[in-house]
Specification:
With about 325 residues, this protein is α/β, with parallel strands linked by helices. The chain has twelve helices and 14 strands. Bound molecules: NADPH dihydro-nicotinamide-adenine-dinucleotide phosphate (NDP) and N-acetyl-L-glutamyl 5-phosphate. Catalyzes the NADPH-dependent reduction of N-acetyl-5-glutamyl phosphate to yield N-acetyl-L-glutamate 5-semialdehyde.
């Protein structure tokens, strides 16, 4: 068994990691950590999150930066479900030990430090770790993930968006002057567990936010290798993301080569499911899958592709474990389906 631990185990993505690793056949969940000042420290995780099974009773231990080396030395895999700023400092310290790090935050997803600073409003001061970090979009980066010590697990919106766009870009079907337009809606768990008025049940409706300046725009652009116009929306539901992307294609594109592009990318994927109808978030909630469906208007040369995921799973925790499975030589879907 490989020993694993989770930092940020009391949060929304952290608790999904607890669920998955608790039942995983190869990873043994050895320790669950929260911050030194956490209101949940010393509690059992299933007392904090009653949805967990009775035997899923790990104690939420307080951990500080001082203990990172010692903790890293005791584990094979470390999962960081922490705020970006905390992962940014902690990942390089953990990596000094012989451990693999799977970071769910955005701290190491962008290779350009100036673009990072603009998007996250703080500077990444560990350029070597940035360079070593492998982007964990599992369907597209398998070989690099298999060899990685540091995996930057993609954001939730970027996962949903990139799965729809990349087959078209990589197959050179996108029209030269086309900027894909992505409209995506997330449930409120995307904002994390910390209470705020914008995510309170009474306040949430359906509305766009982060228009033309959301930090996921540069992440999608770097990994799709194209500019995009990305508009996120907050919806009045708990879990899930639905991303609808509109793209104009080259004159040479036809329904057959679009189908071929998606089939080449995902026909053998255990996680991405090519459907025969439009996906619905409720069908994906609590699963590690990404569902995809598209329609092409030949006359307008317009492709509309729709992808749906659970933001806490394929958008975070299950994709982190998908990457860990690959990094430890297993099939990507082990312990997930
Ligand atoms: N929610 C989502 O859909 C997605 C989230 N992510 C990313 O994953 C990460 C976790 O997100 P999420 O689970 O939603 O966040 P939550 O706010 O739900 O949880 C954050 C966790 O981090 C802990 N924490 C907070 N501050 C510190 C600190 N200074 N030191 C140590 N631990 C700390 C919290 O515990 P405590 O304060 O009790 O110590 C809690 O366990 C974030 O970087 C987020 O951007 C990525 C993709 C999707
Ligand atoms: C609904 C909501 O607020 N969603 C979050 C995105 C989820 C997240 O935590 O983003 P990372 O993938 O970058 O970590 C947001 O828009 O900031």
């Amino acid at each position: 068994m490989m020993k694993a631990c989770i930092f940020g185990a009391s949060g929304y993505t952290g608790v999904e990691l607890v669920k998955i690793l608790h039942k995983h056949p190869t990873f043994e969940l050895s320790n669950c950590y929260v911050s030194e000042g956490s209101a949940d420290k010393d509690k059992r995780v299933n007392d904090v999150h009653a949805c967990l099974d009775a035997d899923c009773n790990y104690v939420l231990q307080a951990a500080s930066e001082r203990e990172l080396s010692e903790i890293a030395a005791q584990h094979d895999a470390v999962f960081l479900a922490l705020p970006h700023e905390v992962s940014h400092h902690w990942a390089p310290k953990l990596l000094e030990q012989n451990v693999r790090v799977f970071d769910l935050s955005g701290a190491y997803r962008l290779s350009d430090l100036a673009i990072f600073e603009q998007a996250y409003c703080f500077a990444n001061t560990y350029p070597d770790t940035v360079q070593d970090a492998v982007y964990g979009l599992a369907e597209w980066n398998k070989q690099a993930i298999q060899a990685a010590s540091m995996v930057a697990v993609p954001g939730c919106y970027p996962t949903a968006s990139l799965i729809g766009i990349k087959p078209i870009v990589e197959s050179e079907l996108l029209a030269d002057n086309c900027i894909p337009v992505i409209n995506a809606t997330s449930g409120v768990s995307g904002a994390g567990r910390k209470a705020s008025s914008t995510t309170s049940f009474y306040e949430v409706s359906l509305t766009p936010y982060g228009v033309l300046n959301h930090r996921h725009t540069p992440e999608i652009e770097e990994h799709a290798k194209t500019k995009v116009i990305f508009t996120p929306h907050l919806g009045a539901f708990k879990r899930g993301i639905l991303a609808t992307t509109t793209m104009f294609l080259k004159e040479t594109a036809c329904a057959e080569n679009i189908a071929q592009a998606y089939s080449n990318a995902y026909a053998n994927s255990p996680i991405v499911r090519i459907r025969s109808n439009w996906p619905k978030v409720d069908e994906l909630a609590n699963t590690p899958y990404c569902d995809i469906y598209w329609k092409y208007d030949t006359e307008k040369r317009c492709l509309v592709v729709c992808t749906a995921i659970d933001n806490l799973l394929k958008g975070a925790a299950s994709q982190a474990v998908q990457c860990a499975n690959l990094a430890f030589g297993m099939s990507e879907e082990v312990g997930l389906i």
